[in-house]
Amino acid sequence: MDSQEASIRARGRPASTQANRSLERGIEILRAFRPGSEILGNGELAERTGLARSTVSRLTQSLVDTGFLQYDATLRAYRLGAPVLSLAHAMRTGSTLLQVAAPLMRDLAQAEHLNVGLALADRDEMVYLESIRYGRRTSLRNVAAGQRVPMALTSLGRAWLAAAPDEEREPLMHQFARRFATHWDVLQSEIDASIAQVRAHGWCIASWQPEVMAISTPMRLGHYPVHVLNVSLSTKASIDEAATELAPHLMRLAGAIDAAFASAQG
């Protein structure tokens, strides 16, 4: 079993047919491109995906043929093609939830000078679907739609873990235990405390960037997967002070989005 198939099995899915494995491996190649990785050769793609170079070579040719990759003959490497961006645009503009949530998020961000975000889980990371930033203090960290943050370290991720069923959360916790082995005891306690916060109050708060407090709540909206809404602020306040200020804003916004989404769904 190769590393990619092992990863798929670890996520609780049955083994794929050969045709499906080809599709999944092609998607793994597209996933290998991250911010700062404009162009990648077959060797780098093989290293990042765990696939054999011969497999990568075959699949990159198919991705070039379909337009999802562009081949640079001078550099003998690949960059993402325009259809990738087109798919992202289709997702954002076609989402009823984003159409409902974004104006409400913007209203809160502008009125209270806060940063407001909405995210979904993707494997062991959270991906921002929307990020509206009106923070009171200048921050060197700029967050945009499509940006990823680590699940284990952020209030976004921990709120999602609190809402996730055991069969999804437990494999991730084992994965985190291996990755953060040197300080897993501390991190596990923090995650457990965040899960308890969500179950007791509906939200959890964390600070994984210096002087940035973020508070998050999971949202179950119709037939959509669990989304996570967050509010953040650059501040020197204590975590308890930040929670006292931010939690009411967050929960009112979550309620407003839930009501507006239900109305939009008829």
Structure write-up:
With 266 residues, the chain is of the alpha+beta class. The protein has two domains: 3-81, Arc Repressor Mutant, subunit A (Orthogonal Bundle); 95-264, Beta-Lactamase (2-Layer Sandwich), CATH 3.30.450.40. It is built from ten helices and eight strands. The chain has a six-stranded antiparallel sheet with strand order 5-4-3-8-7-6. Strands 1-2 form a two-stranded antiparallel ribbon. A hairpin with a 7-residue loop joins strand 7 (212-219) and strand 8 (227-234). It is globular and about 55 Å long.
Q: Could you give the topology of this structure?
A:
Layout: H1 3-10, H2 18-31, H3 42-49, H4 53-65, E1 69-72, E2 77-80, H5 82-94, H6 96-112, E3 115-122, E4 125-133, E5 148-150, H7 155-163, H8 166-179, H9 184-201, E6 204-209, E7 212-219, E8 227-234, H10 239-264
Antiparallel strand pairs: 1-2, 3-4, 3-8, 4-5, 6-7, 7-8
Give me some keywords for this one:
Beta-Lactamase, 10 helices, 266 residues, 2 domains, two-stranded antiparallel ribbon, alpha+beta, globular, Arc Repressor Mutant, subunit A, 6-stranded antiparallel beta sheet
